[in-house]
Amino acid sequence: MAAFRGQRVWLWRWRRNPLRRRSDELESWLLLATWTLMLVTGLLAGLATTHAVESSLAQQRAEWHPVLALTSENTPATSTSAASHERIWAEVRWTAADGSPHTGQARVEPGSTAGTPVVVWTDRDGRLVTKPASAHQAGLRAGLSGVLVGASAAAVPLGGGRLLRKRLYRQRMEQWDAEWEKFGPQWGWKTG
Fold it and tell me: Most C-beta atoms within 10 A of its C-beta, which of 72, 76, 115, 135?
C-alpha cells in the first residue's frame, strides 16, 4: 500500500494546486487553529491547575498541625487476626490552641482504653482534618490534577474542530452532489 502513496509532501494543504477548493483551504486553517488551541488551552489549564493544587496543599501543610487527643471510651478489641491490625473509629477529645475543648471521631487502635493518647490533625479553628499531604505527595497530586484538567480542557477545542470539519465535509459533499447532477447527465449521453 505504501508503494502507491508516493513521496510525502510537507505542508501540502497550503501549496498551490489548481484542484484545491476553498473548503480545502478552510479545512487546513481550521486544523491549524484547532491544534494550536488544543496545545495552548491544555497547557495553560494544566499549569494553572497544578499551581492552584500545589498552593492549596502547601497552605494546608502550613496551617494544619498535630494535636495530642485522648480517647473518651474503651474501644472493643477485634477477634479476627486480619482485622486486629486495622484501626477503628472512636470518640476522642482534645484542647485547641485557644484552650477550648473539642471532641470528634478518630481512628484508634482496637482495644484502646479511655484516656489513651492519639495524634490527630486540626486546622487553625481546632476542627479535625486529615493529615496534610507531604511535599512529595502534593507535587504528585498537583501534577496528576494538572494533566487531567489540561487533557480535559484540550478536548474542548478538539471537539469544536471536529464539528466544524464535519460541517465542511457535509457542505463539500452537497456541492459535489449539485455538480454531479449538473454534469453527470452530459457524460451519460456521450458515453452511452
Answer: 72
